[in-house]
Amino acid sequence: MREFAPWLQKPTQYLGAEWGRTAKDATSVRARVALAFPDMYEVGMSYVGGRILYETVNRVAGLAAERVFTPTDEAAALLRDQGAPLCTLESDTPLAACDVVAFHLTHELCYTNVLYMLDLAGIPFRAADRGEDGPLVIAGGGCAFNAEPVAPFFDLMVIGDGEEALPAILEAVATAREEGGLSKRDVLLRLTAIPGVYVPSFFDVGPDGAPVPLVPGYERVTKAIVADLDTAPFPTCQVVPFAQAVHDRLAVEIARGCTRGCRFCHAGMIYRPVRERSLPELEKLVAEGLSRTGYEELSFLSLSTGDFSALESLFAHTIDRCRRDQVAVSLPSLRAGTLSDSILDMMAGIRRTGATVAPEAATQRLRDVINKGITEEDILDHVARLFRHGWQQVKLYFMIGLPTETEEDVRGIYELAKKVLGQAPQGTKRLQVTAAISPYVPKPHTPFQWEAQISLEQIKERVGYLRDLFATDRRLTLRWHEPEMSFLEGVFSRAGRELAPLVEAAYRQGALFCSWIDRFELAPWLRVFEEAGLDPAKWLAARDLDAPLPWDHLSCGVTPAFLRRERQKALAGRITADCRYGECSGCGVCDFEGRKSELRAAGKAEIRPRCNRPEREHEAVAAPPPPPKEDLTRKAVHVRLWFTKTGSAVYLSQLELTRLFERALRRAGLRPSFSAGYHPLPQMSFGRALSVGVASRAEWMGLFLREPVAPGDIPARLNPNLPEGLAMVAVEELPPGRKVPHPIEETFELVIPAACAKDCLERWAAFAATDSFSVTWESKKGPRSIDARPLVTSIAAGESDDTVRFTCLFAEAYVSPLRLVEAVCPGLVRGRYALTKASVAFEAGGGGVPFRFDEPELSSLAAQNTYALCAARTTACGRPPI
Predict the structure, then answer these.
(1) Phi, psi of 11 (to 5 degrees)
(2) Is the separation of the CB atoms in 611 and 580 below 8 Å?
(3) Rounded to an integer, what distance in angstroms lies between the CA atom of residue 261 and that of residue 333?
(4) CA-CA-CA-CA torsion for 158, 161, 162, 165, nearest 10 degrees?
(5) Are 198 and 539 a contacting pair, CB within 8 Å?
(6) In Å, how far are 454, 466, 745 from 596, measured between CA atoms?
(7) Phi/psi at 175 (5° precision)
(8) How far is CA 255 from the centre of its chain?
(9) 304-335, pLDDT tens digit by residue?
(10) 459 phi and psi, to 5 degrees?
(11) In terms of Cα–Cα distance, which of 745, 755, 756 is closest to 821?
C-alpha cells in the first residue's frame, strides 16, 4: 500500500509508520497475524480490543501482529487497477501471505466488509474453497457468539477473551508448519483444544435448525476467559495515529464484564463475571500510557465505569497528573447516581468533556422490566449535580421497542427530558439536553433472545411521534439511530447459516460500509432477500422457547435456565440485584465456593468477581490538593526548531504535523505555553504548509515553553519521541513575545526519472525563457490560476543530469511547488519523481539581502552546539544579536 501513497487522499492511513507501532525482523517471525478491522482506519484505530491483541501478540518472541483496515473506495480502486493485493501496514505483507488473518466482528453490519477485504486480498470467501494453502481466516469479538450468518467464511472463531487464545493459535500454527505433513483439518483439530476456539466446519445444521456436532467430544464450545485482568497484557506504548481517530485518546480498560443484569444487554451477559484491574496496576497503566503516547485526553473504559468499586480512589490518584498536564478525563455513558460530588469537582477542575447518562427507558415500569436498577429520582439528582458543577449540555440515551413497551413509555422519553431541563439552575447559558434513541435489537445469550423486534414501520412511527414532541422546545434535541440499520442488524443478529449466501449476494450488489449513514442503503439487501424468496421480517419474529437456536452450541457460561428465569422476572416487573455486591444470581458463570460452571480459566484460576472493594465506594476519597495555580500562558523560552521531513513523513499534512508535535512534546516532557481562553491551545506556529508528498531539509516551527530549558537540550529530548522521517536538527532562540519571522524564499530540488529527464529539462529551460506561465487548479470554490513565472527567481541544473533546482519568492504570492512542477512537466507522474525543499532564505533586518539557512548548515548544526551556531550565524548575516 505504501507505494500508492502519492495518489491517495489520506496517505498517512496506509503508511504503518505511526509512533508506537511494532515492526519485527521478518527473519525472526515464526507466525504472522493480520489483525483485520472491517471498517476504515479512523474507526478501527479507536477499537481498544484491537490494541490489546496487537500488544499481546507482539510481546511474544517469534510472533508478529500487524494491522489492516478496510481501504477507502479510492484506495481499493487503485489496488484493483494495479493488480495489487491488500497488505498489512507494518511490513506491507499481502494478507494471503500471512499465517492467520483475524477479523474483529464488532457488529453485524460489518459482514460485507469482511468479504470486501478478502476479495481485495485475493483470498476465496468460503473456508471450504480455500484448500490447504493460504492463511487461516479467523474471527473474534462480541458478534462471534452468534456469527452463524458468516460462519462458512471462517476457518475458526474465538469466543470470549482473546489474550490467551490468539497467541496459542499462532504458536500451534507455527509448530504445525515446522513439523510439516499436517492437513488443515489436522491443524484445526489440534486448535479445538484451546479454550474458546470454535471451528464452524465441525458442526452442521439439522432440519430443525439445531447445530449438529460432527467431531466426537467437540459438541459444545465454551468461551475463553481471563480470570484476572492484572495478569493480562495491556498496551501503554500504543500506536498513536497520524490521522485523527474517532476516539482519539488514551483509553484504559479499568474493568471487564458487568453483572448489573440489564436484560437487553448482550455484552453484560457474554463478558461475565466482573473483573476489575487493581488500583496499583491502573495507576501504572495511566502514568505510563500518558507518558508514552502524549495523549491529551484520558478515558476510563468498561461496560459500566460508574460501577467500578474504587472509582473515587482511581480519580483521586489520577487527577493530579491530569491537572498538571492539561489532560482531559472522559467517561463513557454512565448509570445515574454513580458519580459523586467529589468526582464531579475533580472533573470540573480540568479540561471538561461532555456528560452522558443512560436511563435506557423513561418510565419506572419499563426500567424494572429491563432490570436497569435506577429510579427517576436517581436520574434527576445525577443531572442536577452535573448542572451545579458547570455542565451545560447533557445527553440521555434511550431505547425504543423494548419488550412490553407502550405509548406511555415512548412519551415518557420527552417528559423525562423536560424534567432534566428543569434541574438546571435558572439562567444557565447554552443549556441543551439531547435525547439519543436507538431501536432495540434482541440479542443472543440474553433474556430477551426469544422476543420479537418491532417492525421498520413501527420504528419510524415512534421516531416521528418523538420528533413532533421534541420540536416544541428548542433546548431539547432528538437524535436517533437509522431505523433501516436497526432493521438489518435485527435480521442478522439472531440468524443462522441460511443467510450466508445472502451476505455474499449483497456484497456482489455493492452493499458496503453499512454502518455509515452516508453509505448505507437497504435496497440491495431487500433485493437479495426477494431474489432468494425470503422475507427478512421472519428473522425479527418472536422465537419459540422450546425451539433450537442457531447459537445453542456456543456457551458464554450463562445458562439457558438463568435466561429463562430472568425473562419471567422481566414480564413480572421484578428486579435482580447485582451479584458482585450481593447474593449470587445463579447465572452459571462462576466456579468458586462450590459453584459449578462449564467454563475453565487458564491455570485453573477461580472464575469469580474480582473487585478492588467489597462494596462500591460511597465516601469521597480525598484528592491531592490542587497544585498552585500555574500560569499556563507563561513564556519562559521562545525558540525556532528546525527539522527535516523525509521518508514516510512527507505524507503528513500540516494538521497532522501539528497534532504529532503536540504529543511528541508531551512524551518528551517539554511543557509548552498555552493560549488564554476557554479552549487553551499550545503556543506553536509553523512555517508555510508544505504540500503533502514534498520532502524537506529545512522545515521549522516556533515554540513557546513555559519552563526554562536549555535550547540545546530540546533536540536530544524531542528526537527520540518523533516518528520515522522527522528529525530535529537545529534550534534558534528567539526574543520573548516577538512574532516569528517567516522565510521569503524557498529553494526546491527536483529529481526526475531518467526516462523523461531530457524532456523535462527542456521544459524547464522553456519556462525560464518565458515571461509568463499560468498554473491552474481546481479549488473548493472552483477553478483558480496564478502566473507562476514571476515567483521563480532562479533555475539551475543539479549536479546530475536528472536534477533541477529552482528558487521561489513567496513574499507576495504562493503556488504549490507540486502544482508548479507538474504544470511545467505535465508528463511527470506523482510518486515517480522526488521533490525536496532544500533551503529557505529570510529577509535581512535592514537591507533586503537574504539570510540563508540551507542544508549544509543544518547538517553542521545537528552535529555541533546548535544553539550557539544559530546565534552566531544570525549575527553574521546582519540581524540583531540574540
Answers:
(1) -65, -30
(2) yes
(3) 17
(4) -70
(5) no
(6) 37, 47, 77
(7) -65, -45
(8) 19
(9) 888 999 998 998 888 888 887 888 888 776 77
(10) -60, -50
(11) 756
**Which residues are CB-contacts of 752 (< 8 A; sequence separation ≥ 6)?**
760, 761, 802, 803, 804, 825, 828, 833
Dihedral sign for Cα 184, 188, 191, 196, please.
positive
Parallel, antiparallel, or unpaired for β 136-140 and 156-158?
parallel
| Bridge partner residues of 783 (DSSP) | 778
Strand order of the β-sheet with 197-198 is 63-69, 31-37, 100-104, 136-140, 156-158, 197-198
Orientation of helix 407-421 relative to helix 376-388, angle to 10°:
30
Q: Whole-angstrom Cα distance, residue 768 to residue 789?
A: 8
Query: Which H or E run contains 52?
Result: helix 48-58
User: How far is the CA of 453 from the CAs of 456, 483, 825, in angstroms?
Assistant: 9, 12, 62
Q: What is the pLDDT, as a whole number, of residue 848?
A: 31
Record the cell numbers describing residue 858, joined without a space.
543544518
Q: Name residue 375's amino acid.
A: T
Partners of 819 in the β-ladder: none
3-class SS at 797? strand
Nearest-angstrom CA–CA distance, 386 and 380? 10
With residue 462 as reference, give the H or E element that holds it: helix 456-470
All three cell numbers of 402: 423494548
Nearest to 701 by CA among 723, 726, 724: 726
- 654-700, pLDDT tens digit by residue? 999 999 999 999 999 999 988 887 678 889 999 889 999 999 999 99
Residue type, 692: V
Contact 133, 97 (CB under 8 A): no
Residues 595, 598, 599, 605, CA torsion sign: positive
- Predicted pLDDT of residue 60: 96
Handedness of CA 862, 865, 870, 875 (dihedral sign): negative
Cα-only R_g, the chain: 30
DSSP string covering 580-618, please? TTS-----S---STT---S---GGG---S-B-SSSS---
Cβ–Cβ contacts within 10 Å for residue 875, how many?
Answer: 12
| Residues 81-105 pLDDT 10s | 999 999 999 999 999 999 999 999 9
Average pLDDT in the chain: 90
Distance in Å from the first CA to the final CA of the chain: 47
Q: Residue 197 is placed in which grid cell?
A: 476456539
